[in-house]
Amino acid sequence: MQRICTPVVAAFVLVGGMAGSAVAGPYEEGVAAFEAGDYQTALRQWKPLAQKGVAGAQFGLGVMYANGDGVAPDYGVAASWFRKAAEKNYPAAEFELGNLYVNGHGVAKDYAAALNWFRKAAAQNYADGQYALGVMYENGDGVVRDYATAATWYKQAAERGNPNAQYALGILCFKGEGVPRDLVAAHMWFDLAVARGDKLQPPISPQNAANYRDLVAAKMSKQQIAQAEKRAREWTPR
Fold first, then answer.
1. What is the C-alpha separation between 73 and 178, in angstroms, rounded?
2. How far is 44 from 56, CA to CA, in rounded Å?
3. pTM confidence score
4. In order along the chain (238 residues), what is the average pLDDT of each group of 10 residues?
5. Per the CATH hierarchy, to which homologous superfamily does domain 1-125 belong?
């Protein structure tokens, strides 16, 4: 079964790419400071913006409290800041708040609430939210287990370049769960996950993806492997 990673795993890297939704200047200075490991400067730049309602800064503070970056770790405070940003339709915050509900960090474990926030993030084509919905449906967490629906969400996230979703979809293609068994597709998705192994989130590792790819390859002809490798080379994210 898949597992959704907790918000302490490098969630903040998404903020910089979404800076257009926040105020330029102090916000971006906070991003640069955070990425340089200067958490006190990041906190100093973001806190006034967060108090004024800037979603990116609110999300950034949520990450700091979830990770314990420059502050005492506190999932309750993290949840509060994520919620403020999520209520402004900030998809990364919607995803992270859902993640807190899945894990019962800072909030009571509540799969229904998690599904609600993941769906909001997924509706904005946020790949992590789409992947998270796939996990929920594959595991049957808060919903009836449905491999076909899991595969649908994994595919949407995989096509946007989410390596965990690529790995998960590869497994479903290999096993024929929720989708027809397709070794060529499975090999391609594992190949793509391996190529972005540095972005894979625990508990999935590049070695996991490589092992599955090799397992699939052992059941394929040379022509099928060549076809899968060609598809992986030519693949581009949506």
1. 39
2. 14
3. 0.90
4. 45 41 74 94 96 95 95 97 97 96 97 98 96 97 97 98 97 98 98 94 92 98 98 95
5. Tetratricopeptide repeat domain (1.25.40.10)
